[in-house]
Amino acid sequence: MEIAIDEKTRLQVRRVYQAPVAAVYAAWTDPDQVKHWMGPSDDFGEAEVTSDVRVGGRYRVRFRMLDGSEHESSGEYLEVVKPARLAMSWRWEAGEDPGESLVEIDLEVTKLDPPCQGSTLLGSVSLGHSVPSLDY
After folding, report:
1. Number of domains in the chain
2. Which domain holds residue 49?
3. CA dihedral 23, 25, 29, 35 (to 10 degrees)
4. CATH number at residue 48
5. Based on the number of CB atoms within 10 Å of its own CB, is 86 exposed (0-12), middle (13-18) or buried (19 or more)?
6. Does the bond joining 115 to the residue before it have cis omega, within 30 degrees of 0?
7. Is 132 within a domain?
8. What share of the chain is helix, strand, coil (3-state, %, to 5)?
9. What is d(CA 82, CA 32) in angstroms, rounded to the nearest whole number?
10. Which residues in the chain land under pLDDT 70?
11. Is residue 136 part of a domain?
């Protein structure tokens, strides 16, 4: 699957989790775990999640706001390297954000000084999202 990406729109996140790599990978791939954390704020109830984690497999996440409105995203897994890497397309349904973006997730054991036992460094890059200007 080819995705036309606007390289000018890039969001990069790096975060250390106090959990083993396999546990962080499962948090991204196991629908029963994803539904508990995937939501932008406390204004969302539990998400409905389906996923087929394999190259060419699809996923869908439906968020239900506390006011009853719904927002849905879906995409295709483009690269799956358990437990170290995921790459997937991302599209908001119902015209919320026109176009498709690419999300890449890389997981590795932390290499901190001193090293933390059982910690994972998550590196995430999202390319092509339509995002408003953020002034922080």
Report:
1. 1
2. 10-127
3. 50
4. 3.30.530.20
5. buried
6. no
7. no
8. 10, 45, 45
9. 18
10. 1-8, 39-43, 95-98, 111-117, 127-136
11. no
